[in-house]
Structures are given as C-alpha cells and as structure tokens.
Design brief:
The protein is an alpha/beta fold. Helix 4 crosses helix 14 and helix 7 packs across helix 11. The longest helix has 16 residues. The chain is globular and about 55 Å long. The structure holds coenzyme A. Coenzyme A binds next to helix 5 and helix 6.
C-alpha cells in the first residue's frame, strides 16, 4: 500500500443557507478544496450524501457534482452510510490512492436539509423502519433511550450531558463556519425545551445545510502541493445492528469500538497518543458513549470525565474543537469530511482561536444512525 496524505480542504459555512442550492454547496466546497490543494486536475471523486432523494429530490449525485465541478468525465461515486456517508467516502478515496489506482482523489460530502423536506421522516429512514420507526420512535427518542440506560447503569447525570453542549458551544463560538456561534450555560441547556426525555433542545445537533471536501494524494508527492500535508495513518470501518433492541448493551457503541481498534492497529498508536479528536456528537450522550468506545476513558466513565474537563479545549484530549455536530451543525452527509477538515487544520496549526497546542496526531470518528455504522480515521502532521 502507498502512504497517503491530505493536501487541501474546502468547507462551506454550516447553517440555514436559503440562498444556496444542494449543488451550489458541494461545488463551493469542492472548488475551495481543489484551489487549496493547488492541483490542476482530479483523477476521481467520491461524494457522501445521506438522502439527496428525500431532502431535495435529487439522486445520481456523483455525476451531477462532477459535472458542476467541471470534472467530467472522471469517475464520480456517491457514497451512502447515513450520517457516516462522507467519512466512508473519505475511506474509499484513501483506498483508491493507497492502492495505486489513482493519484489525485477528492472526497467530500453535502446535505441540504432546510429545503422543505420532512426532515424528521427523512432522517428516520436511517433507523430500522419496521422495528423502530413504525413504532413511532425517531432519532432523538433512540438517543434518549441510550442516555437513560447510561444514567441507569453508570450514574451519569443530566448536568454531565449539559456540560458536553456547553463545551461544544464554547468551541463553536470560535469557529467562523459554525451554525451556532454562541456560548450556552448549563442552566440554559437544562431549561431548553424538552425534545425526548431526558434530551432537550440544547442536547441535539440541529438541522443544517452545508458541504465539505478534501483532496488526497500519495505522500511522496504531497510536498509538491503544500508545505503542510497531513498523513492518513489509520482507517477503520465497522457495522452493528441498525436497531437498538438487537444490541447486548444500549450504552456500548460496538461499531465505534471495532472501527477504532482497526484504525489504532494500522496507525500503531494507542488512544492515549491522540492529541485532538472530532467525535460524532449528534446528541450530547453520543459524545460520552464515543469517548468510551474509542478507549479514551473506561466504559461508564464518560460522564465523570466530562465533569473533570477531559474533553475541553485545554483538557487531556480536546474533543470537538470545531464545535462538534452540536454547535457547528450537522448537514448529515457533509459531517464526516468536515470532521476530517477540523483535524487537518489542527495538525497544520491553522485552527485559530481553537488551536490545540502541539497537536501532532488527531482522530475523526463518524457514525451512521444510532451507531449502525462507524468509520474512524487517524492522521499525523508531517514535519
Ligand atoms: N441547538 C440549538 N438551537 C436550536 C437547535 C439545536 N439543535 N435546533 C433549533 N434551534 C433553535 C433555532 O435556531 C430556533 O431559534 P430562534 O427561535 O432563535 O430562531 C429555535 O431553536 C427553534 O427552531 P426550530 O427549527 O423550530 O426547532 P425544531 O423544534 O423544529 O427542531 C430539533 C429542533 C431538536 C427537533 C431538531 O433540530 C432536530 O431534529 N435535531 C436532531 C437532528 C437529527 O436527528 N440528526 C441526526 C442525528 S442521528
């Protein structure tokens, strides 16, 4: 396998972007990534999107985006794995460059959720229709059950969940591309409107529009394009039951643990070697469960670690320095590569007010639904 590097990135602002269409968003992120990488062509591209069909009535997305990005006739592939779509798109691009099949490959993602679609219905198609959705449960309800189970088994408190939102909004305020650039307090989280007990409005990621893209190439030519390439040192992907009821333990994200084990093994690093991480905090409880499944803390100790500031910007492992899905926003198909872009910027030293000192190794974890799919990447700064 060849060694692979990220050489450029492009991100749109996340939010309610009424003046930009689905294709406008991807083209904006794609052109920024191509310009930032300084490449004069692409050999291939991957676009992650959860449900162009349900959100904006558009399928055949690979070719559409290649056309509007001015890249036809290169191979252009749409990738779907619910909210992990662009994390998996990135993995496909990595494999294509590592295999030697192609040299300059773009991976990105896009979602346009604020365009009149029934968003809760569209999102719920990533859960088990027959056994979950037909019974009336949607994603806030599924994660509420995970939160209840975590509180019951481990004594995790309502305040600990709130502190995840407070920390992510603190970081998001420092991210010019975030949807919600404001800080919130524990009291505000605890008094925000109830969505699915115990989860309240400020425990939830929002409904967002946005796109993200990165360009990959073989490491041995990366310095031709940039002084600060970032090497991809580990990748892992795994699946789990889509329905929660089939799992032995509601609080344990087995696909996250398995995808992380693969990525750590390939990278030759341990959880304690990670300097900065982006994890899939679609709801506050998800960040706590992800910290445990990634091996950052012992099983059941995520809530306590949040109390101790483990995941804060100046903590032992700063998590979701971008603001996470909670504050930066969660245009589902765009989230995976957006997380990778935050790690890319942290490792290049260009994260501004959010910069983690001496960040050398970073991790991005992106999952679909309530953890039915997960993909983990580990990246390292190149000196
Ligand atoms: N965090 C903070 N503020 C939020 C918010 C969020 N997640 N969602 C909405 N708001 C704000 C809006 O900006 C608006 O503020 P304003 O009155 O100052 O303009 C206000 O709350 C009401 O917004 P609205 O769009 O009417 O909210 P809603 O009740 O329709 O939707 C949720 C709120 C939580 C139900 C919705 O954001 C949601 O479904 N989130 C989860 C998305 C999801 O499941 N993703 C997939 C995960 S697997």
């Amino acid at each position: 396998m060849r060694e692979v590097a990220i050489i450029g990135a492009g991100l749109t602002k996340f939010g309610e972007l009424w003046d930009k269409s689905f294709r406008d968003l991807f083209v904006e992120a794609g052109l920024k990534a191509i310009e930032n990488a300084g490449v004069d062509h692409l050999d291939s591209m991957y676009v992650g999107t959860m449900s162009g069909g349900l959100f904006v009535g558009q399928e055949h997305i690979g070719s559409l985006m290649a056309d509007y990005l001015g890249q036809t006739p290169i191979p252009a592939t749409r990738v779907e794995s619910a909210c992990a779509s662009s994390g998996v798109a990135f993995r496909m691009a990595f494999i294509e460059v590592a295999s030697g099949l192609n040299d300059i490959v773009l991976a990105g993602g896009v979602e346009k959720m604020n365009d009149g679609a029934d968003v809760t219905y569209a999102l719920s198609t990533a859960a088990d229709q027959e056994y979950e959705v037909y019974q009336g449960v949607t994603f806030p309800g599924l994660y509420a059950m995970i939160a209840r189970a975590h509180m019951h088994h481990y004594g995790t408190t309502r305040e600990q969940l709130a502190k995840v939102a407070v920390k992510n909004h603190y970081n998001g305020k420092r991210n010019p591309n975030a949807q919600f650039q404001m800080e919130v307090t524990v009291d505000q989280v605890l008094n925000s409107s109830m969505v699915a007990d115990p989860l309240r409005l400020l425990d939830c990621s929002p409904v967002s529009d946005g796109a993200s893209a990165v360009v990959l190439c073989p490491l041995d030519v990366a310095k031709k394009f940039t002084d600060t390439p970032v090497k991809v040192i580990g990748t892992g992907q795994a699946s789990d039951s889509v329905a929660l009821h089939s799992r032995d333990d509601l609080t344990y994200l087995a696909a996250v643990a398995r995808s992380a084990e693969q990525a750590y093994k390939m990278a030759g690093v341990k959880p304690g070697d990670i300097n900065v991480a982006e994890v899939h905090d679609c709801f506050t409880i998800a960040e706590i469960c992800a910290m445990e499944a990634l091996g950052f803390v012992e099983r059941g100790q995520g809530g306590k670690a949040v109390d101790e500031g483990f995941n804060a910007l100046d903590g032992k492992i700063p998590i979701n320095t971008s603001g996470g899905l909670k504050s930066k926003g969660h245009p589902v198909g765009a989230t995976g590569t957006a997380q990778i872009i935050e790690i890319f910027e942290q490792l290049c030293g260009t994260a501004g007010e959010r910069q983690v000192k001496n960040a050398r190794i970073g991790l991005a974890q992106n999952m679909g639904g309530s953890g039915g799919s997960s993909v983990v990447h580990i990246m390292e700064a190149v000196q």
